[in-house]
């Protein structure tokens, strides 16, 4: 399975991050250990939502969509608690 996940910073709750992985647990751990330069300054992170896809292509397309303008609007209405 391939996952598209949404994170929220515990230290800066207005900071959010969208990513993709095939190992969700390891990826979250890497974010929280500072192993991802883009997210290291806003540690620790909480997993808010994730969606599973059977192919990497489907996951990549959905991640790309969520990072677009209309994808942001969709995520704000439907995916972020």
Model description:
The model has no long low-confidence stretch (mean pLDDT 97). The chain has 81 residues and is an alpha+beta fold. A three-stranded antiparallel β-sheet has the order 2-1-3. A hairpin with a 6-residue loop joins strand 1 and strand 2 (16-21). It is 37% helix and 28% strand. The protein has helices at 24-32, 56-66, 69-78, and strands at 2-9, 16-21, 45-53. It has three helices and three strands. The two termini are 24 Å apart. It has a single domain, classed as 3-Layer(aba) Sandwich (GIY-YIG endonuclease). The protein is globular and about 30 Å long.
At a glance:
With 81 residues, this protein is an alpha+beta fold.
Give the count of structural domains: 1
Strand content is 25-35%
The geometry reads as: globular
Largest sheet: 3 strands, antiparallel
CATH-level-2 architecture: 3-Layer(aba) Sandwich
What is the helix tally? 3
């Amino acid at each position: 399975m391939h996952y598209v996940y949404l994170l929220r910073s515990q230290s800066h709750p207005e900071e959010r991050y969208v990513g993709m992985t095939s190992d969700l647990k390891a990826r979250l751990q890497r974010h929280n250990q500072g192993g991802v330069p883009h997210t290291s300054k806003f540690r620790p992170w909480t997993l808010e939502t994730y969606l599973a896809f059977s192919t990497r292509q489907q996951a990549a397309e959905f991640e790309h969509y969520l990072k677009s303008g209309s994808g942001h609007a969709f995520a704000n209405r439907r995916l972020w608690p």
